[in-house]
Model the fold of this input.
Amino acid sequence: MALVPLSPETRNLIDGQLVEASNRGRFDNLSPSTEEVLGTTADGTKDDMEAALVAARRAFDETGWSEDAALRERCLRQLHEGLVEEKEQLRSILVHEAGAPVTLTPWMHLDDPLGMLPYWTELAGSYAFEQRMPDVPFMGTPQGRILRREPAGVVGAITPWNVPVYLNLAKIAPALASGCTVVLKPAPDTPWSATHIGKVVAERTDIPPGVLNIVASSDHLVGEILSSDSRIDLVTFTGSTATGRRIMECAAATVKKIFLELGGKSANVILDDADIRSVAGGAMTCVHGGQGCAITTRLLLPRSRYDEGVAILKAAFESWNYGDPTDPKNLQGPQISRRQQERVLAYIERGRDEGAQLLVGGGAPDHLPKGFYVEPTLFVDVDPDATIAQEEIFGPVLCVIPYEDDDDAVRIANRSAYGLSGSVTSASLERGLAVARRIRTGTLSVNGAQWFHPDTPFGGYKQSGLGRENGLQGFEEYLETKVIAVPAGS
Ligand code: NAD
Done:
């Protein structure tokens, strides 16, 4: 797949205009695979965030956007068409700034997310925002009621760098479809995956000024305003659990609605009757450098098949292709930054110190001197309570944990502060399903089946988050509920 030359939009979108930062500041966008500066981006300031907030508030309170579902449907259709026309530029941006392996871009990174937009467009047009409830008696007199679902208001959206086009659209599209207005603050590591969407909005759609604002900034505190300012009605965030906690704290003062999609430490449970060759799929932990919240990073192997399974995994890790993300044979590119590379390497060190056996990898590869790469890393005999089995590493690191029987596997899978995803493999669908039903997570896969689709609600139990993205439930996160009582029969 040949990449087109980079020509990204690098300005912010505020009140319908593509603008430089108020102080003309810019920050570098670094390639994680070459460590070269790809270019610069307008460095949004607190004044820029203020302008975006004023615009979003005005667009919600003083224009017809929140009431005009037909306008929203048309605008989302234009956004989809415009993004499809810019698809190859977005692909190039993703590979260069996020280090996304080009081979993966047709799936989670780009083509799939673009394919989700018609789902939101259709919902904007078809959702029953107002319905009559059946009449009921109150103190002997029949009463009528109208149930209204109204847009929550101005949404502050904060996104991370791992699958940035998808995550930006997964927040923007349902929020706009519901009638909300939005201020998006993307991750500073991947600004163009957002600012280029801003260009499409400004140049190819009738989305009214102020309805969608995009403020990239190198300063996290510019984004923090979205979680504390009283003009924001709802804050939606994807990223680390630590930042999620901070957002909850900041949002408490104004009792904002919050929607959080946080970390994971999901279990891949291989039952003792499974085709043991399926264990090789455990190497998929390294996809995109392990930088995915729903990746299964704990592999639970029955003790009765342990040695067999470990041998298969070792071979799979040793033959795993990684390196230059523009090379189609690689499913793993670099970590996003030096900071993330060092963080992953520190976890590997910790794993060794705590007694896990390092079987493959464990360092930065000698043959890739430039770029923030980490070797595909396989730990076996990992204690389920070890730091590397409990904390989210966000790197190409798999922890193999032995277990005794199905009950033990369920106990270990659930012994986590997280509950985002997971998988179960068994020769018996019934047995696999029985185990899946006992694991406390938001999504599960049995025997390799995939759940990812725009109508699938996605999100976590426990410290993996609050609320659900996608699906009808994801749409309704952006709605308030109002009931109006009216005389019966009216
Ligand atoms: P992060 O949570 O710090 O950053 C994510 C987003 O939050 C970015 O846009 C960032 O600018 C913003 N942010 C940071 N501090 C903020 C604050 N106080 N208020 C408002 N916004 C703030 O994540 P990170 O530092 O980029 O990565 C660290 C770890 O986060 C990773 O190793 C991984 O464990 C986790 N992570 C999880 C996901 C996920 O999809 N669940 C995605 C990315 C990172």
